[in-house]
Design a protein that fits this description.
Order of helices and strands: HHHHEHEHEHEEHEHEEHEHEHEHEE
CATH class of the largest domain: Alpha Beta
Largest sheet: 7 strands, mixed
Shape: globular
Oligomer: single chain
Structural class: alpha/beta
Strand content: 15-25%
Distance between the termini: 31 Å
Number of domains: 3
Number of helices: 13
Radius of gyration: 23 Å
Number of strands: 13
Helix content: 40-55%
CATH superfamily of the largest domain: Response regulator
Length: 343
């Protein structure tokens, strides 16, 4: 049976003395807030039995910030992992008592996203969202700002000039990375297909722009087909990929700029040997990882979620504590690139 963590283990993990842990646990003497927070986080990581009590000791006098997140596709593996990592980042944020609230859309309707933003603004101090770019969502962000609620765009930029920050990948660069890998690994010079989730996903538009610009500049021998909209769904992507394979025997590569990659993976698995059609997708999930190992996916371009979530929470916190910035900005995180030999 595994040994239960002790007070000494917590002290070693936090880089403090056992006496300091004891002072925090029993409130014997004042301990610096950042030190007390470090002790609590160490206890939580180790599963120390008194971690809940340490949380009470540490967080009693800390300011409370309520973080709200509006997202699509609650059932997708990526957004499930996103939620877990964001909850962890909110809990671990130093110097505050963070609370995370989540709302997920059931469609890509701008009106539904706008309603979720409005509802979230009524119960939190700051909002971050991944929603479609549309006048309805821009107006919702304007209403949040008028109520003193900052709003950040996550992964997909929207409400430019109104939202406080965009946080995510540089999507032009992501598209060019995808194009480079397909151009270098395709077994023949032929047709290239691109899937986007929809025309209101600004991040997908930028990825497509970068993707096409790379081929124009560096690989003009390939023929890029008209862009396909898959609404980020597996079934649409599956059916469209089967159709592509039947109509274009010289199909050399596919890039899924948004969701729905599972459909492309399934269709290629049925119709082509691994690697015959280069396939690049976004986000490392159990499905894309398995397809990498099987060499049915050439590369995965992934958001580094732990680092990304920590940065998001820090920016959201700054907007609450320091006020909304006068100039809106962009905060790019470097993508993680996965190949079959790197997973």
């Amino acid at each position: 049976m595994a040994r239960r963590p002790t007070l000494a283990d917590v002290a070693a993990e936090a880089g403090v003395s056992p006496a300091t842990v004891d002072r925090v646990l029993n409130a014997r003497e004042a301990v610096r807030a950042d030190t007390a927070q470090r002790v609590y986080l160490a206890a939580r990581r180790l599963g120390y039995h008194a971690a809940p009590l340490l949380a009470e000791r540490v967080q009693t006098d800390l300011p409370r910030i309520r973080f709200g997140f509006v997202l699509p596709k609650e059932r997708q593996a990526f957004y499930q992992t996103f939620r877990t990592e964001m909850e962890r980042a909110v809990t671990a944020a130093p110097g505050i008592r963070g609370q995370a609230e989540f709302a997920f859309s059931t469609s890509q309707s701008p009106a539904e996203f706008a309603a979720l933003l409005d509802a979230m603004g009524a119960c939190v101090d700051v909002v971050a969202a991944s929603v479609v770019a549309h006048p309805d969502t821009t107006d919702a962000v304007s209403r949040l700002n008028a109520a003193g609620i900052p709003c950040l765009a996550l992964m997909n930029d929207f409400a430019q000039g109104v939202r406080q920050h965009y946080v995510g990948l540089n999507n032009i660069k992501v598209g060019r990375i995808a194009a480079h890998i397909i151009a270098q690994t395709a077994r023949q010079t032929g047709k290239i297909a691109v899937f986007i989730g929809g025309y209101r996903w600004h991040g997908h538009d930028l990825r497509e722009t970068g993707f096409r610009s790379y081929f124009r500049e560096h690989a003009p021998a390939f023929t890029l087909l008209d862009t396909l909209v898959n609404l980020e769904t597996r079934q649409l992507t599956y059916e469209a990929t089967l159709d592509l394979l039947q109509r274009h025997p010289d199909l050399a590569g596919i890039y899924c700029a948004g969701g729905g990659m599972e459909g492309a993976i399934a269709a290629l698995h049925e119709m082509r040997p691994p690697g015959q059609v280069a396939l690049v997708v976004n986000e490392l999930t159990p499905q894309s990882r398995a397809a990498l190992i099987a060499r049915e996916v050439t590369m995965v371009i992934s958001t580094p979620l732990p680092r990304f979530c920590t940065d998001v929470v820090a920016l959201m916190r700054a907007c609450v504590q320091d006020g909304m910035p006068a100039v809106t900005g962009q905060h790019f995180v470097q993508p993680d690139l996965y190949l079959p030999e790197s997973v």
